[in-house]
Write a structure and sequence with these properties.
The chain is an alpha/beta fold and about 200 residues long. The protein has a single domain, classed as Rossmann fold (3-Layer(aba) Sandwich). It is about 35% helix and about 25% strand. It is built from 7 helices and 7 strands; from the N terminus they run ααβαβαββαβααββ. A 7-stranded mixed beta sheet has the order 3-2-1-4-5-7-6. α1 (about 10-15) crosses α3 and α5 (about 115-125) runs parallel beside α7 (about 150-170). The N and C termini lie far apart (about 35 Å).
């Protein structure tokens, strides 16, 4: 959604940087917008027995494809990991479950401002204290889109950026540029404070 080609393994690896740095003990992971599994594969490679992994994808065809990958591809094998496939809108996930890591594979800037606010509110609510949320944003796409857009689209883009910036000011701990992706992208990392 918004990409020219599927996300590269380099972008997938960047999205799981903090999961790679995990300390010890079981963790719970949510991937929102798994698509064809470019990030999913990188997540699975970093899971251990006792971990739980919720894979959310709204498109039923993509969800069926992902399930096949888990069944047939050795890179998607998850011995001892509790994997749950959720074929639904990310905004409908259970409000009673919390995650150590949330990886958002969806480009936030493709959604209307109210939806961006709703998704980010939910993601930060579902994140455990000390947990890390990561998402990607294409480096040049927004600037190009802005050059060729009318005033209404520019106002929407500005509103989305203001919403994202408000969350980033509160939670952002790091960002990385990934140039080995088409298009190149930033990976952002936000951490919920331990209270």
């Amino acid at each position: 959604m918004g990409a020219i080609l599927p996300s590269s393994r380099f972008l997938g690896r960047a999205s799981v940087t903090y999961l790679t740095r995990r300390q010890s003990g079981p963790v719970s992971v949510l991937e929102a917008g798994a698509g064809t599994g470019a990030f999913t594969r990188e997540i699975v490679l970093r899971l251990y027995p006792g971990d739980s992994f919720d894979v959310v994808e709204i498109n039923p065809k993509l969800m069926a494809y992902l399930k096949q990958r888990f069944h047939y591809e050795t890179q998607f094998r998850t011995q001892g990991v509790n994997v749950q496939f959720i074929n639904d809108d990310i905004r409908n996930i259970s409000a009673d479950y919390f995650y150590d890591y949330i990886i958002l594979s969806l480009p936030l800037t493709n959604f209307p401002p109210l939806m961006v606010q709703e998704i980010l509110d939910l993601m930060m609510k579902q994140l455990k204290p000390g947990g890390v949320f990561s998402y990607v944003k294409y480096i040049i796409v927004g600037r190009v889109r802005s050059l060729f857009s009318g005033s209404a689209t520019k106002e929407q883009m500005k509103a989305k950026q203001e919403i994202i910036a408000a969350f980033a000011n509160k939670y952002q701990v790091e960002r990385k540029a990934v140039f080995l992706n088409v298009p190149p992208a930033w990976t952002y990392y936000w951490q919920k404070p331990i209270q």
